[in-house]
Amino acid sequence: MRKTALLILLLAAFVPMTLKAQCPLENTAFSSGEFLSYNLYFNWKFVWVKVGYASLSTVSSKYKGQQAFRSSLITRGNGKLDKFFVMRDTLQGYVTPTLSPLYFRKGAVEGDRYTVDEVWYDYPAGKCKLKMHRLRNDKTHANSEKTMDQCVYDMLNIFTRARNFDPTGWKKGHTIKFPVADGDGVTDAILLFNGRDKVKGDNGVTYNCLKLTYMEWSKRKNKYREYATFFVTDDKNHVPVRIDITLNFGNAKAFVTSMKGTRNPLTSVVK
Question: Structure pTM?
Answer without folding.
Answer: 0.84
